Amino acid sequence: MHKNEFIKQLAKETTLPQKEVNQVIKGAVDLIARRLKDGDKVVITGFGTFEVRRRRARRGVNPKTKERIIIPETQTPGFTASNTLKLSVLGQLEAANLMDMAEAEEEDVASIAKPVRTRGRRKVTA
Q1: Which end of the chain offers a freer environment for a tag, N or C, measured as fewer CB atoms within 10 Å?
Q2: Residue 82: how many CA atoms within 13 Å on its side-chain side?
Q3: Distance CA 9, CA 15 (A)
Q4: Residue-wise pLDDT tens digits, 44-101
Q5: Burial of 93 by CB count in 10 Å (0-12 exposed, 13-18 middle, 19+ buried)?
Q6: Model's pTM, two decimal places?
């Protein structure tokens, strides 16, 4: 789903004009970008966490010349989905209940959710 489709669908579901929904989405994205630029972490309960991640300097190879190079340290934005969002995607929570569940205590969510087997040996329990 692209931004325009997202805005149309959200406007339809909230009965707000598309112009207002567009302004809200643009404002939210701008605010998140500004906060990340300032070095802050943005946590949206029930959705996830946006943060700046640091990649250490590492060795690499220039594919054109096959010369070994040092790739410098860099910072990149990252997103970690909340357990509530993960459970919703897995079908264990209804999407309509996503924000309601986000407001609940973590213990309440853990008692409702079943452990889910994921890649490797990690288990996701929310």
Answers
A1: N
A2: 20
A3: 10
A4: 998 999 999 999 999 999 999 999 999 999 999 999 999 988 988 888 777 656 666 5
A5: buried
A6: 0.67
